[in-house]
Amino acid sequence: NYIGRFLEELLQVNYLNFLFWTIIAVLSTLFFYKKIFYLEVGVFSALVYLTNPTLSITIHTVIYYFLSLYFIYRSLVDKKNIYILLFLITLLVSFNVDISPSFVILITSFFITAFYFIFNKDKIDKKAFIISTFLLIIFIIITLFEKNFIIDLFGRIPIILNKIIFYFSSYPKSIYFYLYLISRFIFIPLPIIYIYRKIKAKRLTNKEYFIFSYFLTIFPMTILFALFDVAARIFDYYIPLLAALSFIESKRLFNERLRTKLIVTVILFLILFSIFLHYIPPRSLEVYDNKLIEGLNTIPNDSIIYTDVFVANILITKLNHLKVIGPDFNRNDEYQ
Question: pTM for this structure?
Answer without folding.
Answer: 0.77
